[in-house]
Amino acid sequence: MDNQVQTLTEHLRATIWARCLTAAQMKRVETDTFEQFVPKGGFVCRKGEPMESWTGIIDGLVKMNNFSPAGKSVTFTGVPAGGWFGEGSLLKDDRRKYDVIALRDTRVAQMPRATFEWLLETSLPFTRFLLMQLNERLGQFIGLVETDRLLNVDTRVARCLASMFNSHLYPGIEKVVQISQEEIGYLSGASRQSANQALQLLEKEGLVRIDYGGIRVLDVEGLRQFET
DNA sequence: TCATTAAATTGTT
DNA sequence: AACAATTTAATGA
């Protein structure tokens, strides 16, 4: 299998925002950023905690989650390996507005706030990357409102998968997630059964391939445009 | 390396 | 939600 374990440094160098940095900037990033292991089911960070770093997923998968006043669990989105998040609260000097929970054993990279702010001030390409990411996420959430209210389960699952790989800023990342259909159900707001049926339909359409314990995305654009 | 078993995940009703 | 079928991982000969 693709069990090639990537080191923190290798992962940092593979991100797109790192490609535009100068050698000196890259050096500081590699020096300051540290790695953290979060076991399956563990918290990467909790709602209400002050933000101390910008967080990237080296390996594994996390979900952004929140609990309604009634105590009901609401999942916003999943973030696969290659994704970075937390810039919103960092920029606003705010606290986390959601829990981040590991769905599998996960390795995360933490870039300290000072390093993040320094990059923001000294690297235009980095700032541009953040703008694109924020814009991408805005579109994603606008789409969610429509998705939630108008569309059927199959389409919801399709858009959910598309958004995870779409963040068109993780280029070249392996389009394979180790995620059970039960977890896909949580991410797309569907029951496990519905997720199962939806995935089988999407596989029939040639958009994904169902593996044991995981999904391989074959056609991101097709998923995004999928409608029943 | 192979067989056995337990645990996780999937498919169906 | 419950059940059966399938796949993987772990164990020991």
From TrEMBL:
Coiled coil ranges: none
Top-level taxon in the UniProt lineage: Bacteria
PROSITE patterns linked: CNMP_BINDING_3 (PS50042), HTH_CRP_2 (PS51063)
SUPFAM superfamilies from the UniProt entry: cAMP-binding domain-like (SSF51206), Winged helix' DNA-binding domain (SSF46785)
Alphabetically ordered keywords of this record: DNA-binding, Transcription, Transcription regulation
Domain Cyclic nucleotide-binding: 37-137
InterPro entries named among the record's database cross-references: cNMP-bd_dom (IPR000595), cNMP-bd_dom_sf (IPR018490), Env_Response_Regulators (IPR050397), HTH_CRP (IPR012318), RmlC-like_jellyroll (IPR014710), WH-like_DNA-bd_sf (IPR036388), WH_DNA-bd_sf (IPR036390)
Domain HTH crp-type: 151-221
SMART domains in UniProt: cNMP (SM00100), HTH_CRP (SM00419)
Name recorded for this polypeptide: Crp/Fnr family transcriptional regulator
